[in-house]
Structure formats: structure tokens, C-alpha cells
Structures
1.
Amino acid sequence: MARSRGTTISVKVPINWDAMTKRTRQRLRQIVGRDTRVIRALLGIIEQNENNLLTGRKKNKIHDGKLDELTLTAIKVRSGHGKRSTVPHDIKARFPRISTNELQECRQTAVSLYESYLALREKKGWNASRPTAVNTTRRIPRWVFIQRFKLEYTTSSVSRWWLGLRDSLDSVQEGRTIHDKLNIPLKVSPFHHNQLRRGEVKACQVFADRVGKWWVNIAVRVAIVEIPDTINPPAVLGIDLGIEKAACTSLVSPTKVRETRYFRQKDKVEIIRKYDRLVADLQRKATSQPNNAGVLRRLRQIRHKRENVACEYDRVLVRNLLNYIEELSEKYTVYVAIGRLKNIRNAARKGNFKGRGFRGMIHSWAFARITESLNHGLAQQGWSVSGKNTRFRVVPEAWTSIMCWKCGTKGTRPKQNYFLCPSCSHQTNADRNGAINIAGRLIMLTKLLHSVRGLGKWAISVQAGKRSRLKARKKKPSKGKSLLSKQELISSSGESAAVHFAQTSLFSFGDKTRESDNDPAVVKTVETLAVVGSDDSTQIQEKEARSSGGIPSQ
Ligand SMILES: [Zn+2]
């Protein structure tokens, strides 16, 4: 079954613990405790048998069927399949108070936990903390799918909203098929209500947080809004992330470059510089007095503070970008391209925040944070953010800052933000030039946009897109020596040149438990996003005067 499209948001609703009876509390604790033990057991089994269970092209998925062969006896089998009367780890025998469906949900939770660990391991190597090694007192809630719970609205004086959870703790042992129901009162606020109404409720998770407060985490799938291409004309917004200007955006419509905006965060640059100086001083001290614990502690503190400040500014930036995109969406079907910074980490190590290395202040993690939040924010607005017709792409930034957007020649940058083309004498702000080129990349990579007739950058990019696809098909390497053909070389890998942010949906649910697939590790993204403020004061937005003559006259 194909996975359903759409993005999933999670809505955290507090449980009205005080309104619960002693028995219900006890039950809930028992259920969550049992689930935790089952999930832990499964995680242990997966870890022990990892080599046999890995599947998929990249060997980063767990084979559900093979896991079942290890853990579940099978008496009723389809013809052609052998019965399994004994298995190495009989979970059902070990945990007699769990129903088959609940067990499947536990398995699903364990598998997705393990798979997100595998993904992490791929990135971080064996330093990634194993799911089996986490604090043993922490409970792991299972994802309960919609078939086994209900959100109910009542007129009861105790609570308006209730979570009706199927409780099979006793009935399984007694062999009853109709299970009891556990009614959990919820504190649903208008905010929660609005969030819940945005889509279809798919699953939930009951858990207690660090301070012992109980919550229900409800997964709601928001439907994707199809592109209303008959209503608004398309336009592409290119985003160039930078330092002095936190971001520069250019809106490219089929006929011309519409507008450019600079998102400045001046105090950020100053504050970060201040912290960087402090860090540098402390580092010098630390090397001269290697045993001074106070210096090291202070160094850690300062680094932490610097990080927090950067995070806060990034959040504001993303919020402002999203507001701007929303505003543009009233007139256009907006596509968003953001330039991927390359090797910026290394550049940061080399430079002392001067010259080229200056850009290093945007670290790769900051970049990932910004793109991920943007991606998420757009998905929440109902955008398609992955696949062929994605409206959000991360495109390689190579050449975008130095190539003239009008004629494609290599230009010069006599000053940090001044771009001059020696070939067509076009002069503009260097960030603007970059942003337009980034928008062009998206047009080039999005086949859907090629059918829209355009002028200037639009037409050039469509041409380049067609050429690169042709090349990709022929698989002939470009051997040209001019810059233009170098650009083609970069793009000749065709569609794959763009990095799609596939991590859109927190987890996609199939309609049956078996097809579902989740990634609890990603839930955090939504949580951080939910706190994004709309504080604009830290930054000045400038709107460039509309280019009067369109592309040819500039
Ligand atoms: Zn030029």
C-alpha cells in the first residue's frame, strides 16, 4: 500500500490527572509500564539479531516479518506457510497481558525507534546512543493507532473531552474479545481544538514527562493542498543565507525579477562576535593553563550561551520568512528554493571570521536548523515539500554567488556585497544576485515550471533544465571549459542535484497498523516550531524598489 501523502503534526494535550479515579490512574500506569517492558524486550531482541533483521537498499530498515519469526508463534497460517509452534523469543508467553494488536503497536514503536537509531548511527558513527542503553527508569510509550482509541466530547461535568482507550489487560487472559475501555479526561483548550481540527487524528501516545505530568500526544495528519495553478501564477523565491544580512530573498516570476528583500539581524552579528571573542580568549587561557577547571567550565558556558542566542535568532528569521511567504502566496503560487552552503564548517575553522571564512558563522547545523524549520512551516501550511512537484527545495549553492544571473559569466565582487559582471556590465547586490540564481536552480529542476512560458531568468533556467535532462539521459560528461559548461556539469546529474528534504512528515501512517511508519525522533521539530514567536523587533526588513523595467532593462 502506498503511503498516504501529507504531513503530520503532533498535538500535546495535558491529561486532567486530578479528575481521574484511583483505579484509572493505576490502570494507565500499568498499561504504560507493560508497554515499556514489551518495547524494551523487542529492542533487545532487535539489537541481538540486528544482522539478520536489516533490510532495504541501505540496510537501514528492520524486516517486520523476520522479527515476527523471532517473536511470534503462528498457529493460523495462510496455505503455503509453515506453522511456527516455537520461536526463540516468545513475547506472547512472556507478556500474557497484551493483545495481539497492542503487541503490534509496540513492535511498530520499537522498530521505528531502532530505525531512527540506525539513521543516527549512519551519521554519527557508533557514538549514537543505543535505544537499549537509555535510562531504564524512563518509560517508552507505544503509539496507539486510531482503531484502538477514541476522542470523545461529552457534557459530563468532570471533563468535556475524553480519551477512550481500549484496555485489554484483563480480557486477554480471560480470552474475551471485547475489551474494557479506559476513559481518560483531557484538558483540551481552544488552541488544541483548532490543531486537532486541521486534519485527521491518526494515533496517540500516552506518557508522563520528566516532572511526572501526564500527556497525550496526538498525531494529526494535515492534508496537502493541491497547487491551485489556475488561480495564482507561479513565482519562485530564492533564499540566500548570509551573515551581515541574515537572509536575502528574490522573487522571480515568469516575466521578471519581482522583488528582493533583505532580512537583517544586525545585533545578532554583534552578539555572536562578542561571544566568539570570549571563546577565543578562553581558549587561549585554556591552552596556557590546561589544568584550570574554572576556565574550561566558563568556556562551556559561553559556548552554550552563544548557541542559544543563535537558535533564538534563527527562529525569528524563519518566522519572518514564513510570514513573508504567506503574504506572497496571496498573489502567487510560490515555490521556495534555499541555497545549500557547502563545506562551510571547514571554512569556519580556517578563517578568523574575516574574508571568506566570515561566512563560516553560519555553521552547517544552523543551516540544517533553518531549512528544517522552514520545511516544516511550509508543510504545515499544506505545501507539498517532497517528491517531484515539491514546492520547497534545497539546491546546491555552487556558483550561485559568483555567476551573473543575467548572462551566466563569472563576475567579480569588488566589495563583500557588490557584484559586477565584466561581460554584460550588470551590477547589483551580491546577495541578490545569489538569491536570483538560487531561484533559477529551482526552476531548472522543476519540470512542472517548464511549461510556463517566461522571460529572462525564467527562460534561461528552463533552457538549462531541458539541456541538463537531455545530458543526464545521454550520460555524456561535459568537457567544456567555459564557466557555463561547468555549471552544466554540476547540474547534469539532473533532478538528483537538488536535496529534497524528505523528513517532512513526522511519521506517515498507512491505514493499517502494519503499514505505518513513524519516527519519534522527529517529533521534537514540531515542538520547537510551536514555540516560534512572531517577534519582529530584532530585525529590519527592507523592501527593494521594484525593478522598473523587468529583466531586460536592468
Ligand atoms: Zn552578466
2.
Amino acid sequence: MSRVAIGLAGLGRMGRVHLGNLAGRCPSAILACVYDVDPVVAEQAAAEYDVPWTASFDELLDACDAVAVATSTASHAPLVEAAADAGRSVFCEKPVSADRASAVAAVEAVERAGVLLQVGFHRRYDPDWAAAARRIHDGELGEVTFFRTSLRDMTSPPASFLTGSGGFFTDVTVHDLDVARWLVGEVVEVHAHGAAANPEFARLGDIDTAVVVLRFDNGALGVIDNSRSAGYGYECSTEVMGTAATARIDAPHRHGYEWRTPGLASRDLVRDFEQRYPYAYAAELEAFARCVLTDTEPLAGGRDAIAASDLAEAATRSWRTGAPVRLSPRRTAAGIDYSSEVPA
Ligand SMILES: NC(=O)c1ccc[n+]([C@@H]2O[C@H](COP(=O)([O-])OP(=O)(O)OC[C@H]3O[C@@H](n4cnc5c(N)ncnc54)[C@H](O)[C@@H]3O)[C@@H](O)[C@H]2O)c1
């Protein structure tokens, strides 16, 4: 096998990004078939990309070597389990589940079946983030002392998405919590503050703005700021300070030109995650296909997904109680385990 035939489940906002990438930007993958619970959506995508479509996940599994899951969050865990039981490796969008027991069951099904699971922590595959990570991990920064990251959407997703999202920390901050673990290390304290600038979020029992303060086991401090609706654009940027250097990954402009008038220069900002991460989303699926071809564990695996979700759950508890949550992650044979602090 020189290319992996990948079936794509879920053709909404994120699924459409994966669709374009699988159809032409992943040399180790072939888009085998598409599926959505809405057959009209699946049929339209199939016609647009000239690929087969199906109205059944079982048929999708029959048509592919491996599957990419970009359906709504609540369906991830059962689809991952079904794929694993059918012997298919899975790329799954984050989070694997908003419910810890379901996420663990899905990851254990994957491990039992001996297939691979990669989770959609796309920043790990972005060229800028990956270059910074390599140098940090090689020790060029010296001792890491401080981590700062911002993730801000320009506009909020629709209420229909929010109600099934798992809540702010599980849906949004989970990306930053994964990056914190990846770039700096394990977290021993989370103190989260949240607010609903838009009262609609309060009505849903959720928030749209948050600050999360982290303590790492190496003594470093961290701060995450998040917004669902920054208004000006989509921002995702990070700094990692060390005793020898500081790595900064800035939010890029949309285009390489600016428009100048007397006393004023203006430039387009990126508006959403698709514009910010064109390379990362293609690279993560290419990396997944290569992992399947070489039977190599993905960089962002199931245990990373559970760890980041556990930290998100700790942030949720901290926000609700107003108190910091102390953590003592343990290294086990299966991977890092934050479970003792986060009740199922
Ligand atoms: N990695 C990222 O940057 C990123 C960005 C956005 C969304 N996401 C994640 O991607 C997932 C999808 O988000 P979205 O914004 O595309 O949502 P969406 O609501 O726009 O799309 C979801 C699609 O899945 C389909 N669907 C729902 N349940 C299904 C099922 N059981 N079987 C088949 N199809 C089903 C829906 O019909 C819809 O077409 C979410 O889990 C979200 O957390 C990740």
C-alpha cells in the first residue's frame, strides 16, 4: 500500500476543511468515500469532489483503509469505537468525547484492536509550531520559565454547535492545554476564570471569555486567554520564555500586502481557523496517513486527548468553584494519567 484510502465522516465546518485536504493536499492519502448523517450534504460533497458517498458509517468503513471523523462531538466516541472494532485506524477531531468514561472506552477500544488513533490537535503539525517545539525540546531555550498563549475566535459558532460542544474549556481551551503539555510539560495546578460577555452564553450555562493560569511540574508558570468572539479576527499566538531564549509564534496577517493612506497602514487579518492553519490541517492528515503506512504512533494520540480533556475538566471545575485545582499526573505504561484528580 503506497497511499491510504481514507473515508471521511462529517462534512460540516471542519469536515469541509478535511475534505479539501484529503482530496488533493495529502500525497500519502486518497479520499475513498464521504459520509454525513445528512445525506444531502454527503451527496453534494461527493459530486463536488467526484468521490463515492454513503449514508451509513458501516459502509464508509467497508470502503476505506482508515477513517477521519469530523462529526459533531457527541458522536466521536461511538464512531471511534466502531472503527477500531472494524480494524480501521482513526483520525478523530478533538475532543474524543466531552464525557471522560466514553473517551477512555474509545481509546481502550483502539488499543485493544491494535489500530492507531490520532486526535485533531493540528498545531502540533503546523510548520511554525513544530519548528519551535523541536528547538524547545532540544533544550535551546534553556529552562522553560513562562508560557503564554491566546486563542480567540473572530465570531462565535452557532448555538446549535455550542450546545453539543462540551462547554468552553473542553471545546476551545483544550487546544491550548494540549500545546502547554507539548511545549512545556505536565501541569500541576489549574486556576480558571470565565465570563459570558454575550448573555446568550450565560443562558446556555456557558462562557465566551476565559483566562486560565497554569503551574507546571518544572516550576514554570503559564497563562491562556481565550475568546469566542474577539471581533477583529481569529488570533492564535504563543510565547515560551526560557533562561536562554524566548520562542514567539505570532498571529500572521492574511496577505503579504498592506494598504497605506496618510498616517495609516492597514492589513487583512485572518478570520478563522481555516485561514490561520492551511498547512497544519493538511499536514496532520498527511502525518496520519504516513503513520498508518508505517504503523507508527501519531504525535497526538488518544492518551494526549484524554490528558488535555482532563485538564479542561479541571479548568471547568476551577471556574465553577473559583478555586485552583491541584493535579498530580502519573506516568503509567499506557501514558500520562491525570485521572485521580478528575472524577469520571
Ligand atoms: N481542530 C479544530 O481546529 C476544530 C475546529 C472546529 C471544529 N472542530 C471539531 O470538529 C467537530 C465538528 O465541528 P464542526 O464545527 O465542523 O461542526 P458542524 O456542526 O459544522 O458539522 C458537523 C457535521 O457532522 C454531521 N454529523 C453529526 N453527527 C453525525 C453522525 N453521527 N454521523 C455522521 N455525520 C454526523 C453533521 O450533519 C454536520 O454536517 C467538532 O467535534 C469540533 O470540536 C475542530
